[in-house]
Write a structure and sequence with these properties.
This protein has 205 residues and is mainly alpha-helical. The protein has helices at residues 8-20, 24-60, 63-69, 71-94, 107-119, 123-131, 144-176, 180-203.
């Protein structure tokens, strides 16, 4: 037992698995690194962490229950997130050589962009609301301390994962700079994926 968390090792393994699943956060991290280098990737990583922390504590506070009670509010936020992701994807698809990047090179913009993408996924609140109880022992639960340890673990693992992805993406980007066509092709592909994520978020129940 670790701070009221049952099977802490499985909890860590599950988080690592979820981090590796392709999604908007991963796409924002890769795109930020390819555009802004290591500082851009780290900025996006911190943005994802900040967004996740907000959603986790909203889940702990019971916001998921409120969203379930008022489905119109949930649907409104869900559609907002879908439109935002699709807009980013369209900007990438329609960008021409020489245009300003969709994600600004300044690190603080990467942070804001990644945090916005994370926050505009209301299903994450419901996910955390369902996920946390799986690893909480009712007999040994230590209240907010148990959730704080969970949140800190997720933040730490996300940072390590983001750092690894940033270094790997930066290394590959350096090799591809000699051929701008590859970079433009990857940006178009990223745009298609973002639009796909937006559509999926809009039509999911």
């Amino acid at each position: 037992m670790f701070f009221g968390i049952s099977d802490y090792g499985s909890f860590v393994a599950a988080i690592v698995l979820f981090l590796a699943i392709p999604g908007p956060g991963n796409l924002a991290l890769i795109t930020s690194t390819s555009k802004g280098g290591i500082s851009g990737g780290l900025g996006a990583t911190l943005g994802v962490i900040a967004g996740d922390q907000v959603l986790m504590w909203l889940a702990v506070a019971g916001v998921a229950t409120v969203l379930a009670t008022y489905p119109a509010a949930f649907a409104a936020v869900q559609w907002l997130g879908a439109v935002y992701l699709a807009w980013l994807g369209w900007k990438m698809l329609s960008a021409k050589p020489g245009d300003a990047p969709v994600l600004n090179i300044h690190p603080k913009h990467y942070f804001q962009q990644a945090m916005a993408i994370t926050l505009l996924n209301p299903k994450a609140i419901v996910f955390y609301m369902a996920f946390f109880p799986l690893f909480v022992d009712p007999l040994h639960h230590q209240g907010l301390l148990s959730f704080a340890v969970m949140a800190a673990t997720i933040a730490g693992l996300t940072f390590l994962y983001g750092l690894g992805m940033t270094l790997l993406t930066h290394h590959l980007a350096e090799r591809m700079r000699a051929n701008p066509r590859i970079g433009r092709g990857l940006e178009k592909l990223a745009g298609i994926f973002l639009i796909g994520f937006g559509v999926k978020l809009a039509i999911s129940k």
